[in-house]
Write a sequence for this structure.
């Protein structure tokens, strides 16, 4: 192969094939690599011009055909596969070459790999890619972090292929080490939370308003034209209009109510606990997927216990109530995820720019939403804002919607409709905005049974009591 290519990509599954075609469409020559000859051939045929985009099976031929310094992106499953691919490439690389992990790798794995490859003179960085297969093909949101010099060499390519919001590419260097993969992890955690909220709203509209799928389609479509405009609301509207090609029914009614997961939401939740940052709207979204998997047990339990007869609410009133509660919970879910990013930035030395992150999420990614433009402005106005709920620009948005969340959560509780995402968002808000919480009692209990000490309101220091009634 005499021709040389600007960019190489390992892993020609759906995401990899679409991403490399996107690169070729934007004026860069690209070469793919995959162990599966069928995937290699499929890319060659779809590309149409092997001088523009080509693919090979052999790793040595792949590396030899890339211009120096080599710019190679891996879009393969997270975990051991990434390490295997790295080891297969290393004998064919030179110092100064660039490796990019475009998958959903756990952030500590990225730290380990960057340190390992730096010793060999190879630039390495993780780059979260969001937008699914369509985003990869037409313009994703890209979240790179790691070797700054490595990113600089790839920057023109990434800025060309990324989604654009008002002409600005939805990609930016985010920080050192695993900053990119960490931001993508939290992005996915927020995604879990927003998807849970979307499903809860559907549930209450269906059960308490008896909305048909056609009415749900138009309701979500109307919301998508307003302040709830977002990718998830948009596709939800379209889902309700989809017919089942295997039968005479709406497809949504034929889909099993068991949601699967790949782990990134769980990672977000686990790491938030490690950091001591509360993200209950994300936590419950992970738990609800786990509960959904218990289909057989849920069916048995449903037959064992009486449930309230669900009261019906006027459709227009219910739609208005759910829109406001939905909007409130959307804000709170973003607030929790961004709070985690701000704390992780300090803990791990990422030096994240939260406004910049919100900007590159405005288009291309799964959690893109109209709200992100306001979030960007809030963090541009206060670069050290600890929590979105403290932004003056969000006070009126929250004040105007929180009462609807209270009413809807109460209605759900009285009628046996689970609304855990909305209720957890409300509980978080009430706790976060409370000067005084009852945790003084917990500290007293800890000191009583374990001599764990406590602090006082009226003086400095740490105290312990020999409790008089202690047995």
């Amino acid at each position: 192969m005499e021709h040389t290519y600007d960019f190489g990509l390992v892993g020609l599954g759906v995401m990899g094939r679409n991403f490399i075609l996107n690169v070729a469409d934007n004026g860069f020559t690209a070469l793919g690599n995959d162990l599966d000859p069928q995937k290699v051939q499929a890319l060659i045929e779809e590309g149409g011009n092997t001088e523009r985009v080509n693919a090979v099976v052999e790793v040595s031929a792949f590396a030899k055909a890339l211009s120096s310094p080599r710019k190679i992106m891996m879009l393969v499953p997270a975990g051991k596969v990434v390490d295997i691919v790295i080891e297969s490439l290393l004998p064919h690389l030179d110092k100064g070459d660039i490796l990019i992990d475009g998958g959903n790798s756990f952030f500590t794995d990225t730290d380990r790999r960057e340190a390992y490859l730096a010793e060999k003179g190879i630039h390495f960085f993780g780059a979260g890619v969001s937008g699914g297969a369509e985003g990869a093909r037409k313009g994703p949101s890209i979240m790179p972090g790691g070797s700054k010099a490595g990113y600089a060499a790839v920057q023109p390519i990434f800025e060309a292929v990324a989604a654009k919001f008002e002409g600005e590419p939805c990609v930016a260097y985010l920080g050192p080490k695993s900053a990119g993969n960490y931001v993508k992890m939290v992005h996915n955690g927020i995604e879990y939370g927003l998807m849970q909220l979307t499903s809860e709203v559907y549930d209450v509209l269906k059960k308490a308003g008896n909305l048909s799928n056609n009415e749900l389609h138009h309701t979500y479509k109307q919301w998508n034209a307003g302040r709830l405009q977002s990718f998830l609301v948009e596709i939800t509207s379209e889902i309700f209009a989809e017919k089942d090609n295997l039968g005479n029914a709406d497809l949504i009614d034929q889909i099993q109510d068991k949601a699967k997961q790949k782990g990134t939401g769980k990672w977000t939740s686990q790491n938030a606990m490690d950091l001591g940052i509360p993200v209950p709207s994300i936590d419950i979204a992970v738990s609800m997927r786990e509960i959904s998997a218990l289909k057989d047990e849920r069916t048995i339990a449903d037959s064992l216990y009486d449930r309230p007869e669900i009261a019906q609410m006027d459709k227009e009133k219910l739609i208005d109530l759910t829109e406001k509660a939905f909007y409130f919970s959307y804000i709170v879910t973003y607030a929790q995820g961004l709070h985690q990013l701000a704390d992780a930035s300090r803990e791990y030395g990422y030096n994240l720019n939260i406004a910049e992150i919100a900007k590159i999420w405005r288009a291309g990614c799964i959690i893109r939403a109209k709200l992100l433009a306001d979030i960007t402005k809030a963090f541009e106005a206060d670069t050290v804002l600890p929590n979105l709920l403290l932004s003056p620009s969000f006070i009126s948005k929250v004040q105007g919607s929180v009462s609807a969340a209270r009413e809807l959560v109460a209605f759900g509780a009285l009628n046996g409709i689970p609304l855990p995402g909305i209720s957890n968002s409300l509980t978080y808000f009430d706790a976060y905005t409370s000067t005084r919480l009852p945790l003084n009692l917990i500290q007293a209990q800890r000191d009583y049974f374990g001599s764990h000490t406590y602090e006082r309101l009226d003086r400095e220091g740490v105290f312990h009591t020999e409790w008089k009634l202690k047995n």
Observations:
- The chain has a mean pLDDT of 94.
- The longest strand covers residues 123-130.
- The CA atoms of residues 61 and 101 lie 21 Å apart.
